[in-house]
Specification:
alpha+beta, 119 residues, Ribosomal Protein S5, domain 2
Protein backbone atom coordinates (compact mmCIF):
# COMPACT_ATOMS: atom_id res chain seq x y z
CA UNK A 1 0.00 0.00 0.00
CA UNK A 2 1.37 3.40 -0.93
CA UNK A 3 2.69 5.53 1.93
CA UNK A 4 0.17 8.42 1.59
CA UNK A 5 -2.68 5.91 1.87
CA UNK A 6 -1.53 4.52 5.24
CA UNK A 7 -2.57 5.47 8.74
CA UNK A 8 0.51 5.09 10.89
CA UNK A 9 0.51 7.68 13.67
CA UNK A 10 -0.96 6.99 17.07
CA UNK A 11 -2.88 10.29 16.90
CA UNK A 12 -4.70 9.10 13.77
CA UNK A 13 -5.85 5.92 15.48
CA UNK A 14 -6.90 7.90 18.58
CA UNK A 15 -8.97 10.20 16.33
CA UNK A 16 -10.65 7.12 14.86
CA UNK A 17 -11.64 5.91 18.33
CA UNK A 18 -13.18 9.31 19.13
CA UNK A 19 -14.81 10.41 15.91
CA UNK A 20 -15.19 7.19 13.94
CA UNK A 21 -18.26 5.04 13.37
CA UNK A 22 -17.78 1.32 13.90
CA UNK A 23 -19.21 -1.60 11.93
CA UNK A 24 -18.75 -5.16 13.12
CA UNK A 25 -18.49 -8.54 11.45
CA UNK A 26 -17.39 -11.80 13.10
CA UNK A 27 -14.07 -11.59 11.17
CA UNK A 28 -13.29 -7.90 11.55
CA UNK A 29 -14.28 -4.51 12.89
CA UNK A 30 -14.28 -1.52 10.54
CA UNK A 31 -14.02 2.07 11.80
CA UNK A 32 -14.64 5.02 9.49
CA UNK A 33 -14.15 8.76 10.01
CA UNK A 34 -14.06 11.61 7.49
CA UNK A 35 -10.72 13.23 6.66
CA UNK A 36 -9.98 16.53 4.87
CA UNK A 37 -7.98 14.81 2.10
CA UNK A 38 -9.06 13.89 -1.43
CA UNK A 39 -8.15 10.24 -0.87
CA UNK A 40 -8.75 7.52 1.73
CA UNK A 41 -6.19 6.44 4.28
CA UNK A 42 -6.18 2.91 5.68
CA UNK A 43 -4.93 1.35 8.90
CA UNK A 44 -4.75 -2.31 9.85
CA UNK A 45 -4.70 -3.68 13.40
CA UNK A 46 -3.74 -7.29 14.10
CA UNK A 47 -3.32 -8.03 17.79
CA UNK A 48 -1.35 -10.83 19.37
CA UNK A 49 -4.64 -12.62 20.09
CA UNK A 50 -4.60 -13.73 16.44
CA UNK A 51 -1.41 -15.74 16.80
CA UNK A 52 2.29 -15.43 16.16
CA UNK A 53 3.94 -12.91 13.83
CA UNK A 54 3.55 -15.13 10.77
CA UNK A 55 -0.22 -15.38 11.29
CA UNK A 56 -0.62 -11.66 11.98
CA UNK A 57 1.41 -10.67 8.91
CA UNK A 58 -0.57 -13.08 6.72
CA UNK A 59 -3.87 -11.62 7.89
CA UNK A 60 -2.57 -8.07 7.40
CA UNK A 61 -1.34 -8.93 3.89
CA UNK A 62 -4.73 -10.38 2.91
CA UNK A 63 -6.60 -7.36 4.28
CA UNK A 64 -4.29 -4.98 2.38
CA UNK A 65 -4.94 -6.96 -0.82
CA UNK A 66 -8.71 -6.74 -0.36
CA UNK A 67 -8.54 -2.99 0.27
CA UNK A 68 -6.19 -2.45 -2.68
CA UNK A 69 -8.79 -4.04 -4.98
CA UNK A 70 -11.74 -2.22 -3.42
CA UNK A 71 -10.18 1.27 -3.20
CA UNK A 72 -11.05 2.49 -6.73
CA UNK A 73 -14.75 1.80 -6.13
CA UNK A 74 -14.93 3.49 -2.71
CA UNK A 75 -15.99 7.02 -1.82
CA UNK A 76 -12.99 9.25 -1.05
CA UNK A 77 -12.18 11.46 1.90
CA UNK A 78 -12.26 8.91 4.73
CA UNK A 79 -9.91 7.30 7.22
CA UNK A 80 -10.63 3.56 7.49
CA UNK A 81 -9.27 1.20 10.14
CA UNK A 82 -9.73 -2.57 9.91
CA UNK A 83 -9.26 -4.52 13.14
CA UNK A 84 -8.88 -8.26 12.61
CA UNK A 85 -10.74 -10.54 15.04
CA UNK A 86 -9.61 -14.08 15.95
CA UNK A 87 -12.13 -15.97 13.73
CA UNK A 88 -10.43 -14.47 10.64
CA UNK A 89 -7.40 -16.75 11.10
CA UNK A 90 -7.43 -19.58 8.57
CA UNK A 91 -10.31 -18.20 6.51
CA UNK A 92 -10.02 -18.27 2.70
CA UNK A 93 -9.39 -15.05 0.81
CA UNK A 94 -12.95 -14.96 -0.60
CA UNK A 95 -14.51 -15.11 2.88
CA UNK A 96 -12.33 -12.26 4.12
CA UNK A 97 -13.09 -10.25 0.98
CA UNK A 98 -16.84 -10.80 1.45
CA UNK A 99 -16.66 -9.75 5.12
CA UNK A 100 -14.73 -6.59 4.23
CA UNK A 101 -17.09 -5.62 1.40
CA UNK A 102 -20.08 -6.20 3.69
CA UNK A 103 -18.66 -3.80 6.29
CA UNK A 104 -17.74 -1.23 3.61
CA UNK A 105 -21.31 -1.34 2.27
CA UNK A 106 -22.73 -0.93 5.78
CA UNK A 107 -20.52 2.12 6.20
CA UNK A 108 -21.82 3.56 2.92
CA UNK A 109 -18.37 3.76 1.32
CA UNK A 110 -19.16 1.72 -1.80
CA UNK A 111 -20.09 3.89 -4.76
CA UNK A 112 -22.97 2.67 -6.92
CA UNK A 113 -21.99 1.30 -10.35
CA UNK A 114 -21.95 3.81 -13.20
CA UNK A 115 -25.45 4.35 -14.57
CA UNK A 116 -27.16 3.19 -11.37
CA UNK A 117 -29.01 5.80 -9.35
CA UNK A 118 -28.98 6.19 -5.61
CA UNK A 119 -32.33 5.42 -3.90
Amino acid sequence: MQRPLRLRRQEDFAHMRKAGRTYRHPFLTLSVAPNPLSHNRYGFVTSKRLGNAVVRNTVRRVLRGVIRQADPSLAHGFDVVLVARPPIVGQPYQAIEQATVTCLKQAGLCKPPVGEQLP
